[in-house]
Design a protein that fits this description.
CATH architecture of the largest domain in chain B: Orthogonal Bundle
Subcellular location (chain A): Cell membrane
Strand content of chain B: under 5%
CATH topology of the largest domain in chain B: MetI-like fold
Distance between the termini of chain B: 41 Å
Strand content of chain A: under 5%
Pfam family, one (chain A): BPD_transp_1
Membrane topology (chain A): Multi-pass membrane protein
Oligomer: heterodimer
Main location (chain A): membrane
Helix content of chain A: over 70%
Number of domains of chain A: 1
InterPro entries (chain A): ABC_transporter_permease (IPR051393), MetI-like (IPR000515), MetI-like_sf (IPR035906)
CATH superfamily of the largest domain in chain B: MetI-like
Radius of gyration of chain A: 24 Å
Chain lengths: 290, 277
């Protein structure tokens, strides 16, 4: 009995730093967020208890619904393209050897380690209406220059593209690890049977890489639902409402309009969406392709 | 005949791969080379792959007219603190979960796993309220604290400590070592590789963090470099060379960290995604 309680004390000393940080910086803020959703509190300071009014307001708030829509649109534009392109790039890297392979992998991976504000500065410059080098390409293929991040139609797809450019390295790395786990014997045997590239991909690579694909899809989905940084930065000074996403709407309500209670409600709805979507996706992805 | 045909297709794929890689890396090259051009050249149309006149003017401008030096100090202090604290807390907690039997162990483990669900971004409102109650708005500690919750570090450590053979532990026990000795002398040194990998990726993540540092530091003096460089606004001239020079300076530490520790960064990314490499 005596040693048992001593063991507990030793363990307590080990877990204390994490548990204390967790309680103060995670659990408490989470509980407090939920309580805030029932009040009309400003960002700093107390507010009145108003029951479910914030939630009722949520469903009649056009700007909120449009933020949900924009977030969904951004998810649609990024998650699957980023995953599939990640697989394609990984297969491309995997075919190469030596220095060529290192160069190609670095080209795909380097953007991923950059801070978002650097990515923003790079693409603001690339796409500048007057001086941007990429505007030449637009001119050539589309026929005219477009201020892409301020254009209602172009903004979201362009920001999705920038996001893919920035983050694909992560997916490429995971896929390369997955591809290296597939035994070369399978490919050799199928080559002897005369299988072409496409058949090898369809019947060996794709089914065997599926667990990694499912993992990447899950990580991507949750990540992109929480999008804020690059959209906020790339639309600085423009019309932000066209491309307002959920986290940005939390920021707007709580920090710009000083509505802490309502901002917390939007935040809680994001939390709910992420939980529901991850459960649904987990169910959907458990199925393996034939 | 058939062999020749396959080889041709293979070469074509290699060429396409190279072309895509070059296009992919081009914005990086273009950004860096722009910082080395004088203003009038930046505004010239066309693809001028090298500056006609090389200049470091954009860099001296950024270094002398912005507080980038101060931002750098802030970033270093914040990123190093976050790294040390996150890795230390994660290792200790991961060790307890892996090696010690204590009340509430299972509950703690499931709490750690469940916390993956809650998006940190959803907590910005209450984090801000909390930090302002602590009087930590516009302070280093205020930037650091909300970044300390990284449950994946605990999970990775637990996995690695799980796979250390029990013999080491029992031998040390027989020699009279206590848990702290076992942790610091055996489990931690045996897993230096994991610690290095986690430390590097945590450092890169903390250096790159945007949303929270952006919200909590509103004064010019307390910003991290990642936030600071988005605030540089000029009202005259073509400012791209200067903006990008600031961006290059901001990216330098993480770029160097990556180039020096490439293998570790890769390993850490796999680990944090749940692939034990």
């Amino acid at each position: 009995m005596h040693t048992k309680s001593r063991d507990n004390w030793v363990a307590a000393a080990f877990v204390a730093p994490f548990v204390i940080a967790y309680l103060v910086l995670f659990l408490y803020p989470t509980v407090r967020m939920v309580i805030l959703t029932f009040t009309d509190a400003p960002l700093i300071g107390a507010g009145k208890w108003i029951g479910f009014k914030n939630y009722q307001r949520l469903f009649n708030d056009k700007a909120y619904l449009s933020a949900v829509w924009n977030t969904g649109y951004f998810v649609l534009l990024t998650v699957i393209p980023n995953t599939l392109l990640g697989l394609v790039f990984a297969m491309m890297v995997n075919r190469q050897k030596g220095y060529v392979q290192s160069f190609i992998l670095a080209a795909f991976f380097l953007p991923y380690i950059l801070p978002v504000s650097v990515v923003y500065r790079i693409w603001e410059w690339m796409m500048d209406y007057q001086f941007g080098i990429a505007q030449h390409a637009l001119d050539a293929f589309y026929g005219e220059r477009v201020a892409v991040f301020r254009n209602k139609i172009w903004a979201m797809p362009m920001m999705a593209f920038v996001t893919i450019w920035w983050t694909i390295g992560f997916n490429v790395l995971l896929f390369i690890a997955g591809l290296r786990n597939i035994s070369q014997d399978m490919y050799d045997a199928s080559a002897l049977d005369g299988a072409k590239r496409w058949k090898q991909f369809r019947y060996i690579t794709w089914p065997l890489i599926w667990p990694v694909t499912a993992l990447v899809l899950t990580i991507q989905l949750i990540l992109q639902l929480k999008i804020f940084d690059q959209i906020y930065l790339l639309t600085l000074g423009g019309n932000v409402n066209n491309t307002m996403v959920l986290v940005q709407y939390i920021y707007k309500q709580a920090f710009q309009l000083n509505k802490g209670g309502y901002g917390a409600t939007v935040a809680f709805s994001l939390f709910a969406i992420i939980v529901v979507v991850s459960v649904l996706q987990y169910q959907a992805l458990r199925a393996r392709p034939r | 005949m058939n062999l020749l045909k396959i080889d041709f297709a293979g070469r074509l794929i290699t060429l396409i791969t190279l072309a895509i890689a070059i296009v992919w890396a081009f914005p990086l090259y273009w950004a860096v080379i722009t910082t080395l051009k004088p203003e009038f050249e930046v505004a010239q149309p066309g693809l001028n792959l090298l500056p006609k006149t090389w200049t470091l003017g954009a860099y001296t401008h950024v270094l002398t007219t912005t507080k980038i030096g101060q931002w750098y100090v802030n970033s270093v202090v914040v990123a190093v603190s976050v790294t040390v604290l996150v890795v230390m807390m994660g290792a200790l907690c991961g060790y307890a979960l892996s090696q010690l039997r204590f009340r509430g162990r299972t509950a703690l483990w499931f709490t750690v796993l469940a916390s993956f669900m809650v998006p940190i971004q959803a907590l910005i409102v209450t984090h801000f309220v909390l930090m302002s109650q602590f009087g930590l708005i516009n302070s280093w500690l205020g930037i650091v604290l909300p970044q300390l919750i990284v449950p994946v570090v605990v999970i990775v450590y637990k996995q690695f400590f799980d796979s250390v053979p029990k013999d080491f532990r029992e031998a040390a026990r027989v020699d009279g070592a206590n848990e702290f000795d076992i942790f610091f002398r055996i489990y931690l040194p045996m897993n230096w590789g994991v610690t290095t990998a986690l430390a590097i990726i945590t450092f890169i993540g903390a250096w790159n963090a945007f949303l929270w540092p952006f919200l909590v530091s509103t004064a010019d003096d307390t910003m991290t470099v990642t936030v600071g460089i988005t605030m540089v606004k000029e009202n005259f001239g073509v400012q791209y060379a200067r903006n990008l020079a600031a961006a290059v300076l901001a990216a330098l530490p993480v770029a160097i960290a990556y180039l020096v520790f490439q293998r570790r960064v890769t390993q850490a990314i796999m680990l944090s995604a749940g692939i034990k490499g």
